[in-house]
Amino acid sequence: MSAARFFVEMHVNGQKIGPIEVPKQTMMIQFLHEYLNLTGTKFGCGAGVCHACVILEQTDSGYRAHRTCITGVGAFNGKSLVTVEGHAQIDPDTGEVTLHPVQQAFIEHFSFQCGWCTPGFVNEAIALYDSLERNPIPKDKLRATIDTALGDHICRCTGYVKYYRAIEDLLTSQPGLLL
Fold first, then answer.
1. Which of 40, 47, 68, 111 could form a disulfide with 166 if both were Cys (CB 3.0 to 4.6 A apart)?
2. Is 94's pLDDT higher than 80?
3. What is the pLDDT of residues 48-64, one digit of tens each?
4. DSSP secondary structure, 89-126, as one string
5. Quick one: which H or E segment has residue 133?
6. Which residue in 77, 50, 74, 54 sits closest to 66, CA to CA?
7. SS3 (DSSP) at 63
8. Are residues 140 and 169 in the same domain?
9. What domain range includes position 118?
10. What pLDDT digit, counting tens, does each position of 9-25 carry?
11. pLDDT, tens digit, 9 for 90 and up, residues 109-134
12. Same-domain pairing of 101 and 166
């Protein structure tokens, strides 16, 4: 007896995907790796605890983070998604790459060691950046807001200080994000 299958389609990093037929039990992280060859999203704990597998859904009200190791691909049917590979911009004429400010800040602060958790941190920090562009907060609430946004992420190399410092430095240096 064969496993049940269904078709999915979505936009990933600005490109229309599908319809593609997949087994119903396919987790989104498997779909990204095995069907789209997007391997930047990392499988960490497999239980939705570490947040290494976070990708972003683009909605009218901003980004919404999703853990892909515990969410089936069917939950993303018809949605617009961004993986860690989708944030940098490439100039089609020159091939020059422009990183998202969060990516640049993480590089400048060397905010990674092994890098396994980095894609989840990048995506969640970009969601925070986007949120603050839409709804700036008072500067005195910044640390608590960063803790809320990134607090569930697990870094086994204990690189938290560098991630937090990078995002705090970035957010305080960008006009319009803080009141």
1. 111
2. yes
3. 999 999 999 999 999 99
4. EE-TTT--EE--HHHHHHHHTT--SS-SSHHHHHHHHH
5. helix 118-134
6. 54
7. strand
8. yes
9. 89-173
10. 999 999 999 999 999 99
11. 998 888 888 999 999 999 999 999 99
12. yes
Beta-carbon-side half-sphere exposure of residue 145 (alpha carbons within 13 Å)? 20
In a shared domain, residues 26 and 81: yes
Residue 112 confidence (pLDDT): 81
What's the domain count of the chain?
A: 2
What is the C-alpha to C-alpha distance for residues 63 and 139, in angstroms, rounded to an integer? 22
Q: Which residues contact 78 (CB under 8 A, 6 or more apart)?
A: 9, 10
Place of tokens 């092994």: 114
Query: Tokens 């593609």 map to which residue?
Result: 20
Question: Which residues face 65 on adjacent strands?
Answer: 56
Task: Indicate the pairing of strand 80-82 with strand 62-67.
Answer: unpaired
